[in-house]
């Protein structure tokens, strides 16, 4: 099930907009494709990130996958609870499994997919 209140990237990240700060995580589809996540490398607070750029990585029992920032801005928080608790990304990707937060400019959703568009992407 794809939450209707989020935006999505073609790289399978989700974005929750809350004024000028967005929360970013990976979708249920992405965590399912990766398998059991065992290690997470996240950007540091204060890092400047560009939409589409690699900002970290996820390591699973199957593979290593880059984390891409779906937006441009400054990292203002990271989910340090994932250090040693990576499995929460598999069990709750849209909640406690969030990855990092970015302070963005005016149009945080530019270039992102709606839930309907993302559903089309994952069912193709």
From TrEMBL:
Keywords: Lipoyl. The keyword Transcription regulation does not apply. The modification N6-lipoyllysine is found at residue 62. CDD domains: GCS_H. InterPro entries: 2-oxoA_DH_lipoyl-BS, Biotin_lipoyl, GCV_H, GCV_H/Fam206, GCV_H_sub, Single_hybrid_motif. Its cofactor is (R)-lipoate. Binds 1 lipoyl cofactor covalently. PROSITE patterns: BIOTINYL_LIPOYL, LIPOYL. It holds the Pfam family GCV_H. The keyword DNA repair does not apply. The glycine cleavage system catalyzes the degradation of glycine. The H protein shuttles the methylamine group of glycine from the P protein to the T protein. The glycine cleavage system is composed of four proteins: P, T, L and H. Belongs to the GcvH family. This is Glycine cleavage system H protein. It comes from Aeromicrobium alkaliterrae.
């Amino acid at each position: 099930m794809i939450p209707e209140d989020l935006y999505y990237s073609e790289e399978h990240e989700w974005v929750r907009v809350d004024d000028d700060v967005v929360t970013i995580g990976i979708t249920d589809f992405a965590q399912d494709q990766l398998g059991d996540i065992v290690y997470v490398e996240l950007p540091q607070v204060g890092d400047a990130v560009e939409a589409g750029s690699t900002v970290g990585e996820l390591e699973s029992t199957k593979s290593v996958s880059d984390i891409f920032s779906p937006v441009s801005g400054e990292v203002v928080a990271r989910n340090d609870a994932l250090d040693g608790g990576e499995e929460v990304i598999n069990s709750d990707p849209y909640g406690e499994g969030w990855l990092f937060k970015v302070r963005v400019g005016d149009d945080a959703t530019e270039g992102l997919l709606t839930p309907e568009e993302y559903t089309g992407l994952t069912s193709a």
